[in-house]
Specification:
Elements: H1 4-18, E1 23-27, H2 29-32, E2 53-59, E3 62-67, E4 71-76, E5 82-85, E6 106-110, E7 114-118, E8 121-126, H3 127-137, H4 149-156, H5 166-169, H6 181-191, H7 204-227, E9 251-253, E10 262-264, H8 284-287, E11 295-296, E12 303-304, H9 319-340, E13 349-352, H10 367-372, E14 395-398
Antiparallel strand pairs: 1-6, 2-3, 3-4, 4-8, 5-7, 6-7, 9-10, 11-12, 13-14
């Protein structure tokens, strides 16, 4: 199924492409595949002709196109929906399809572009009601920039969900809009929670960590869809027969209300707060045991590797942290350099210049003449000759004091 990150990317692209344009014509299976007696009658989609597009928004797996008439076109991309602009294949969700349908579900011919919506459901809704619903739920959207993790935790732990399985609750689009089956499985594994656990059996610490893991994997999902990276490389449990953590057997079932494919490792997902993956773990944020080797993003709280200059999930730079570290490092370097030029009591290193040991060479009073002449002498074993001018050089040796 097209999950929240994929729908969000579709909405972002659509908003930048079609807002401000008017609908010239509508077509597609939603209009043509009707009883013959109704073919001469206009459909609700015909009311969009001549109307200007004001905005495009997404909420979880739903996409809304708002028109100046007060109408709203609601699109759900189901299991494998995708969008084409001017009949060009650019949607990452289309590239995985072996067979493309001949006609779109709905096609909007606009002033400049043609938008074709494939393998989706589409319906006309009242704009004000849709906007009010969007305003009410948007902070629960797992991909929203101002996602409210505290509110999401409260929604999960609400009394009405006490007897529901946790794998059903996080798939509920009224609680966590945008979470799909892939995100569900990976988040439960990262949190170390058994999907067959009822909500009333979990503590606030479990739920807080689970919300965090849903958010983190959603950001990875979004980044992969946006940049073209393979998402499957980040799977730890989804569609595996052997656990990547303990190499134990993975259980597959279709439990609960939605009967969606669920994968879990009973050994690793035992509901212990210290459970979950130990490799590339994201649990430091939730448990407060994060190590100094990682850094937490200020925007999305994703735990990044120490060498990362920007957040892997949302792309936020590590500028503040790095600048502070650089200042400290530079000040320490200046201190070390300054101390190295002082006396031997301050620095353990001493600079010594080894002079050539003369062999019966007469001493002269002119130092310039000695500098210009090639040294006719034997050198001690401690002296090293410079490769460029074949003369002794200063060596830094460890002080014996």
């Amino acid at each position: 199924m097209v999950e929240g990150p994929g729908c969000k990317l579709k909405g972002e692209k659509m908003k930048g492409k079609i807002v401000g344009q008017r609908v010239i014509q509508v077509s597609g299976n939603a209009i043509e595949n009707r009883p013959k007696r109704d073919l001469d009658k206009p459909t609700p989609f015909h009311a969009l002709i001549g109307k200007k597009i004001l905005d495009v928004k997404t909420l979880g797996k739903e996409l809304f196109i708002f028109f100046c008439s007060g109408d709203c076109l609601r699109v759900h991309f189901l299991m494998a929906g995708f969008v084409r602009y001017n009949d060009k294949s650019e949607d990452p969700d289309e590239s995985a399809k072996k067979k493309i349908p001949e006609k779109p579900r709905l096609q909007l011919q606009l002033d400049k572009d043609t938008v074709s919506l494939y393998q989706c459901s589409a319906e006309i809704r009242e704009g004000e009601e849709t906007q009010a619903r969007w305003d009410k739920q948007i902070t629960l959207d797992i991909c929203w920039s101002e996602f409210d993790s505290h509110r999401a935790s409260q929604e999960i732990m609400a009394e009405r969900n006490a007897d529901r399985l946790i794998c059903d609750v996080i798939l509920d689009q009224e609680i966590l809009p945008g979470v799909g089956n892939i995100i569900k499985n990976e988040a439960l594994f990262d949190a170390g929670i058994n999907p067959l656990t009822k909500v009333k059996e979990l503590t606030a610490g479990h739920v807080t960590r689970l919300v965090k893991m849903n958010r983190d994997f959603s950001m990875i999902f979004y980044d992969c869809r946006k940049t073209g990276k393979p998402l499957h490389k980040f799977y730890k449990i989804y569609r595996f027969s052997k656990c990547k953590q303990c190499e134990g057997k993975v259980t597959k079932c279709k439990p609960g209300e939605y009967e969606r494919g669920t994968y879990f490792c009973a050994a690793c997902q035992n509901n212990a707060l210290e459970a979950g993956p130990s490799k590339n773990s994201l649990l430091g944020w939730a448990s407060g045991t994060g190590t100094s080797s990682t850094w937490s993003c200020e925007s999305c709280t994703f735990e990044n590797k120490p060498g990362s200059l920007k957040c892997f999930a949302c792309g936020t730079g590590k500028a503040k942290r790095k600048s502070s570290e650089t200042t400290i490092n530079q000040s320490s370097k200046k201190t070390n350099l300054g101390s190295s030029t002082k006396t031997a009591e301050v620095s353990p290193f001493q600079s010594k210049v080894f002079r050539p040991r003369s062999t019966n060479a007469p001493a002269t009073n002119s130092s310039k003449e000695n500098d210009n002449k090639e040294p006719d002498c034997a050198y001690s074993d401690e002296v090293e000759l410079c490769k460029s001018h074949k003369k002794p050089c200063a060596l830094k040796t460890v002080s014996k004091d």
